[in-house]
Amino acid sequence: MKYRIVLGDKEYCVDVSDNGVCCEAEVEKENIEMSDMVKEVSMEDILPDFHFIDDNNTETIYSPMQGKILNIIVKNGQIVKKGEKIASLESMKMEISISSNVDGFIRDINIHEGDFVKNNQELFVVKRET
């Protein structure tokens, strides 16, 4: 499960998976493994100024099909318009354009050039223009 959290004044994207024996968290590309947890604690106990970011004003852009990311045209924080090409994907020897669904700015880029992606994989998060 993926979470976007703010701790202090810094924003983190945290991916947490739990198989019942061990819990793994990825924070900024760094894996943290926790096993044999002795006691269950709440997030508030560990991180008193922790809060989730309100994602109601964002739009996630997903891969239209599986393939290889050829290029990423945008950078984090870049303003984009609805319909603007932000990346391209190669699938079945064709180049497919990936465009923004909304006006706003790029908040998260979850891929790199050369990555192989699955159908419906989360690629970008765009914060809507308000």
From TrEMBL:
Pfam families: Biotin_lipoyl. InterPro entries: Biotin_Carboxyl_Carrier/Decarb, Biotin_lipoyl, Single_hybrid_motif. The keyword S-adenosyl-L-methionine does not apply. Residues 52-127 form the Lipoyl-binding domain. It comes from the Bacteria. PROSITE patterns: BIOTINYL_LIPOYL. The keyword Disulfide bond does not apply. Keywords: Biotin. PANTHER family: OXALOACETATE DECARBOXYLASE ALPHA CHAIN (PTHR45266). This is Biotin-dependent enzyme.
